[in-house]
Amino acid sequence: EQWRGWNIHVDGYPNTVAMEKFAELLAEKTGGEITLQMFHGGTLGSQPDAIEQVRLGGLEIGNFNLGPIGPIAAEANVVSLPFIFKDVPHMFRVLEGEGGQKISDGMAAKGLTPLAWYDAGARSFYNGAKPIEAPADVAGMKVRVMNNDLYSGMISELGGNPSPMAFAEVYQSLKTGVVDGAENNWPSYESTGHFEVAGYYSLSQHLIIPECLCINTDVYNALSDDMKAAVKEAAVESAELQHQLWAEREAASREKVEAAGVKTNEIADKTPFQEAMVPVYEAYLAANPDLRPLVELIQATE
Amino acid sequence: MGLLVLLGLFALCVVVGVPVAFALGISALAAFWFEGLPLMIGFQRIISGINVFALMAIPFFIFAGELMFHGGIAQRLVRFASAAVGAVRGGLGIVNVLSSMLFGGISGSAIADISALGSIMIPVMKEKGYDTDYAVNVTVTSSLAGIIIPPSHNMIIYAIAAGGGISISKLFLAGVVPGVLMCLCLALAAYVVAVRRGYKGEPFPGWRALAFSFLDAIPGLMTAVIIVGGVLSGVFTVTESGAFGAIYAFVVTLLFYRNLTWMKFRTAVSSAVKTTAMVMILIACAGAFAYMLTFYRVPNLTVEFLTGLTENRILILLMINLALLLLGMIMDMAALILICTPIFLPVATSLGIDPMQFGMILLVNLGLGLCTPPVGTCLFAGCAVGRLPMEKAVRTIWPFYLAILVALMLITFVPAISMTLPGLI
Amino acid sequence: MTNSDLSRDPPAFLVWMDAFLDGLANICRLVTGVSLVVLTVIFGWLVFGRYVLNATPTWVEQVALLLVMVIAFLGAAVGVHDHTHISVAVLRTAVSAKVRLVLVIVSDVLMVGFGALMIRYGAELTLFKWDSQIPLIQMPEGLRSLPLTICGGLIVLFSLGHIVRLLFGNDMRTDSIQ
Ligand code: NA
Ligand code: NA
Fold first, then answer.
1. Is residue C167's pLDDT more than 90?
2. What does this protein do (chain B) (predicted)?
3. Contact criterion met (CB < 8 Å) for C129 and A166
């Protein structure tokens, strides 16, 4: 059986290498019964489109960020709450426990079964004017955000002006000042060239959104138990490789942009940022009362 | 086999006379069905083909152009342009190329260039006695300036596809000379074709008339100033500038020139909608078609086949150009950049080609593909704006292709054209 | 755009059919025209909000994408009605009147078929996505495929109209049977 897989990243990126590894392990562990043909670089469509294609069965496999899964599976949207995870290791502890199971179940019910979790690091603010150390530094700033009410709510609560904008326009907009800043992880900040036009990177780490290696639920459920185990094993092993490559890539990207003159700053005390998020959480939980237990579970996870 | 269904049915539909957009859609859907893929995904691809924010520039610039035409701005611009360059044979053809060079430098998008300049220049050139095919051909081919001359979204896509090792600022600089060179070649072609067709120059009307026509055209010229100035100063993005062009054209023609009646406004809106829809439905259905080409790995197979033929450096470079050209003829740009870069770039660098120079080769090739049948967004847009059957445009476009090919060969074999400027910083 | 008065007196039901289809096309023209104007105005509002109010209206981008769907698909349907789409007429103009009749009918039948598929799968897509929300505007994601679905219906009607007109000798395509 020949499966097809989607991945947005280009050649050489940690996720691309890990997905290729997954394809290799899949063939190996299933004795060649299942092979996977990967389409990298998002050439089969945008991320929301590819999510839909996996759900509809046009593709079997995809490496997705949980952000765009939020509008489809409500449980997955919880990870888009700003500052919900203390740091990346905390996120993985949650995902490997009961919290991860709840998110998994919610996604599987919508046709996407997660096989393993990939690392996408933490997203931080960057801009061309000044280091951000307190919420007051964000005030009045036009910040490009991805399309999600939680992200735009976050910037509003910090006093900034959230400006949703197509990704392709961000570089030029940062350069000319249509927007003052944006936010992303180290590797994206570097590979998009945004560091050339926005030279202050402030480690707010406000969003830690994991990625998943997902399979179409029906395809997965139709497998024998042995096959399921083989597929899962291949996914988990590819995730281990991805985590390691991701850490290396993060360090390399950071080194590269700092060598290019980017000013990085740690934020010693993130409490003022977190406190500013209270209205975001309240509005979210008022609109999604069912998710309160999951949010509390994550917050209670050590 | 499935690929045969896709291409065969497409050719068949086109020959029978099914509109090209629907020929693309029908053949793509047939291939979806043949492969047992859910047909819903076929229609998802059609929708996603135009669910792209950057394409918003098309309706705006076309609308602005129509308002300028029906509201009298365009005619004043023409009066000024023909007073200034009318004495030169094919003067308006050359003006068309040069304005693309300037405008493309700001918009960064070939399709925005055609929408904006084509909507103004083509009617005006027709009025001045140029053949429609000439006007369309010049507009279509010179729009490539938008891709090569910075800023350019497609260069950013290329830089990302290349793995992030390229500075985008330097890459932008690398595009300046190749872009200008290409425009000069096109201007020369425009001149030669004009002479061969016997377009007569008009006698120079004198400095007084020139000055008067300039003053009269100032509010119209301000459109360009607003768009360019607004983008460069960071007041708005290119897409937003299109909307402002339309709003400004509306205000000027209504209040200043007092030319815009309710009937003219309605005409402008309805022809803008018509042209927009024609272009958009083509892009939409081409999206489904490209999905199946990617599915069948056509780009990868083409590349493997052509580069496997030879080991000679010059021949390999020519083969790369040929492969890119062929692929560009049937697929749109962004997807091809993402697919072809990882395959070709290592080959090119092993031959000593700098990634920035290779970017220029890639973009010019794929850009030329936008101007060719059977799938060429720029050609579609130019024909839609000029209301010209595609086969009529294609019959006489050769000299302009040739001009771009000359520029392409120079860019391929003379590294200094791309590398000098970025080397200075 | 009624050209039905080109040839001999058409039967009454043809007149009625043309009036109905022209009416549909006019509704589409109105809707797409208003969409274009609204699209332009909300972008003005977007920039005004960002600069003057320092509060970017975050809904503009998503609403704009929906309006473009309306313009593209309803406009494309009108294009089918008016025969304004880019097509290659080389073969049609080179062959005899009989062969040309066959080509034109085949082309119309293909369009009816494609339109029918647009209705069916467009509707399925719309229902499939009705539960997901478009971020920032909280409207059903299914709205995005609704214009395509409606376009399918219109294409079926307009193309059937062409066939009927053709069979009664009232075709209005300049390059088809005289
Ligand atoms: Na440009
Ligand atoms: Na031009």
1. no
2. Part of the tripartite ATP-independent periplasmic (TRAP) transport system.
3. no
Contacts of C71 in chain B (CB under 8 A): 59, 273, 276-277, 280
Pair C22, C1: CB distance under 8 Å: yes
The residues, ordered by sequence, that sit 6+ positions from B335 with a Cβ below 8 Å of its Cβ are A43, B290, B294
Q: Which residues are in the CB-under-5-Å shell of ion ligand 2? A: B 96, 100, 117, 139, 142
Kindly report the number of other CB atoms within 10 A of residue B18's CB atom: 28
- Interface confidence (ipTM) of the complex: 0.90
Compare all CA atoms of chain A with the CA of C137 and give the residue at the minimum distance: A149
Question: Hey, are the CB atoms on C88 and B50 less than 8 Å from each other?
Answer: no
- Rounded to the nearest angstrom, the distance between the alpha carbon of B142 and the centre of ligand 2 is 5
Is C56 in contact with A148 (Cβ distance < 8 A)?
no
Q: Any CB–CB contact under 8 A between B163 and chain A? A: yes
Contact of C86 with B282, CB cutoff 8 Å: yes
Crossing angle of helices B238-251 and B207-232, rounded to 10°: 140
Q: What are phi and psi of A205, to 5 degrees?
A: 45, 45
Q: Chain C partners of A162 at a C-beta cutoff of 8 Å? A: 56, 58
Q: Report, as an integer, the average pLDDT of C127-146.
A: 87
Q: What is the DSSP string of A9-34?
A: SPTTSHHHHHHHHHHHHHHHHTTTSS
> What distance in Å separates the CA atoms of residue A253 and residue A13, rounded to the nearest whole number?
12
Q: Are strands A200-207 and A123-127 parallel, antiparallel or unpaired?
A: antiparallel
Alpha-carbon span B122 to A109, nearest angstrom: 55
* A172/A168 Cα distance (integer angstroms): 8
* Statement: residue B34 has pLDDT above 70: yes
Report pTM: 0.85
pLDDT given for residue B256 in this prediction: 81
Which-ligand-closest: CA of B382? Answer: 2
- Indicate whether C176 pLDDT > 50: no
What are the φ/ψ torsions at residue B165 (nearest 5 degrees)? Answer: -85, -5
pLDDT of residue B403: 96
Q: Which residues of B touch C36 (CB under 8 A)?
A: 59, 63, 269, 272-273, 276
CB contact under 8 A, A173 and B234: yes
Determine the 3-state secondary structure of B351 from DSSP. coil
CA distance A20 to C70: 40
Rg, C-alpha atoms of chain C: 20
Which of B318, B354, B353, B325 has the alpha carbon at shortest distance from B340?
A: B325
CA C135 to chain CA centroid, Å, is: 27
| Best of B41, B109, B292, B332 to mutate (most A CBs within 10 Å, chain A) | B41
**C136 interfaces chain A, CB cutoff of 8 Å:** yes
Instruction: Test A148 with C61 for CB contact under 8 angstroms.
Output: no
Q: Which chains touch B (3 or more CB pairs under 8 A)?
A: A, C
Helices C12-51 and C146-167 sit at what angle, rounded to 10 degrees? Answer: 150
Joined tokens for residue B123: 């009617």
Number of domains in chain C: 1
Does the distance separating the beta carbons of C50 and A140 come in below 8 Å?
no
The Cα–Cα gap between B175 and B230 comes to: 22
Report CA dihedral (B150, B153, B157, B159) to the nearest 10 degrees: 20
Which residue range(s) make up the domain with C138?
3-177
State pLDDT tens for residues B211-237. 988 888 888 778 777 776 777 777 787
Closest approach of chain C CAs to the CA of A68, in angstroms? Answer: 9
Q: Are C147 and C69 in contact (CB under 8 A)?
A: yes
| pLDDT tens-digit series, residues B413-425 | 999 999 988 877 6
Helices (H) and strands (E) in chain C, counts: 5, 2
